[in-house]
Design brief:
Layout: H1 3-8, H2 23-33, E1 46-51, H3 52-64, H4 84-93, H5 97-100, H6 105-113, E2 120-127, H7 132-151, E3 155-158, H8 166-173, E4 179-188
Antiparallel strand pairs: 1-2, 2-4, 3-4
Helix pairs in contact: 2-7, 3-8
Length: 216
Amino acid sequence: MDFKEVFQKEHVTRKFTNRKVPENAIAEIIKKAQQSPSLLNSQPWRAYVLVGDPLEKFKQASIENNDIKPDEDFASMLSLDWDVFPSRNMVTMGASQSFFFRNKLQLFSHANKTMFNAPAIIFLTVPKKSPAWSVFDLGIFAQSIMLLAINRGLGIMPAHSMVSYPDLVRKYAKIPEDEAVGMAIAIGYIDKNAEINDPKFIPARVPFDKIYKLTK
């Protein structure tokens, strides 16, 4: 696929079909993503994939945990305070806002609760003993995974909600205690008939002149 086409298709999928993603395709995506740069070539990331029965058990356990306050690993590593600029962006064009303004918030909530019907979820970790740079590196690695998945005709969904209960993630994905569960990316085939995947729900981007400055 042409790179421009891949990049233009990079937006989240909120409902996948039941079609399974070949395990070798997932492995190939992650292997290629290892080319991502990192500070001093530290390559702090690891990827754990859940599919099939373990994934379904994880989804059910997460639903049962829904009334428990989330306790993300990164919350203990990083500040959760937001500056005015990103806070304003979330209020005006946050992920749920396009659903809220169309009186379709129930679609958004249901998709999150069911983990988007994802047939595969990739959990990304870094060692708990890590500098902030490793979090930045993990983001680069994640972006590589998502672009490579799109290039294979897959949809992607990076979601904070899937790492809200890291102990559950560790249990079902068999992740060691000394690794921080940083983020999760659901991948699968896009359900093109699902209302929630209608392009009208894709949130807007900040005006370019608000984020770009050239000094010469």
